[in-house]
């Protein structure tokens, strides 16, 4: 039997969460896809607060991948409108001493969305609590390619250390990911934090993101705490 009580002895320093299953959640209920994404946005805000309250220092959420741009045009445009509307809500999250950072290529989004994202980052920059990174139009391979290009351009000297490479990633300043949770039943990384997750523990659950409540989160974190991390030793 799963234990959803907060008995966690060891918390990950940096957790990555792949929020999968919003469309299936809506379809099961005969609702428009947009309603699934809206519900997923509400669950995101709830889990951000839970992680912060638990003492997690860094959390990175996979919200929109580079591949998601290939979805139907009406769904993509609906997601863009959702992101814009939710940024005002994220400011309330920032007021709880959480720092918000957006990673990925935001240049594909509207000027309005880009400006709002920059405002959220700026206004939360001084917060001392959990650092929450939201990956939008993000892909691990694209991130690595970007880092290589920047190193060739700005440091064309041959040998590069791992730290120098990491400093060119979107996640500069963040520790490596300790734990990745993927909801929705799929069991793959899907181009998420490929460099940063080199030694991450992986957790897959059939629970759809919209149903991933605090109890489900606690079950996952207790599972992480029970593992023996050897880092290849």
List keywords for this structure.
15% strand, 6 strands, 233 residues, 42% helix, 7 helices, 6-stranded parallel β-sheet, alpha/beta, globular
Describe this structure in words.
42% of the residues lie in helices and 15% in strands. It has helices spanning 22-28, 33-54, 73-94, 111-124, 140-154, 162-166, 214-225; strands at residues 14-18, 58-65, 99-103, 131-138, 179-182, 201-204. Strands 3-4-2-1-5-6 form a six-stranded parallel sheet, sandwiched between helices. The longest helix has 22 residues, at 33-54.
Summarize the helices and strands and which ones pair or pack:
Elements: E1 14-18, H1 22-28, H2 33-54, E2 58-65, H3 73-94, E3 99-103, H4 111-124, E4 131-138, H5 140-154, H6 162-166, E5 179-182, E6 201-204, H7 214-225
Parallel strand pairs: 1-2, 1-5, 2-4, 3-4, 5-6
Helix pairs in contact: 1-2, 2-3, 3-4
Concise synopsis of the structure shown:
With 233 residues, the protein is of the alpha/beta class. The protein is built from seven helices and six strands; from the N terminus they run βααβαβαβααββα.
Q: Note the beta-strand portion.
A: 5-15%
Overall pLDDT level: 88
- Rounded to the nearest angstrom, the radius of gyration is 18 Å
Task: Specify the overall morphology.
Answer: globular
Strand runs, count? 6
Unreliable stretches (pLDDT < 50, length at least 5) are none
Distance between the termini: 31 Å
Strand order of the largest sheet: 3-4-2-1-5-6
Count of individual helical segments: 7
Largest beta sheet, briefly? Answer: 6 strands, parallel
Order of helices and strands: EHHEHEHEHHEEH
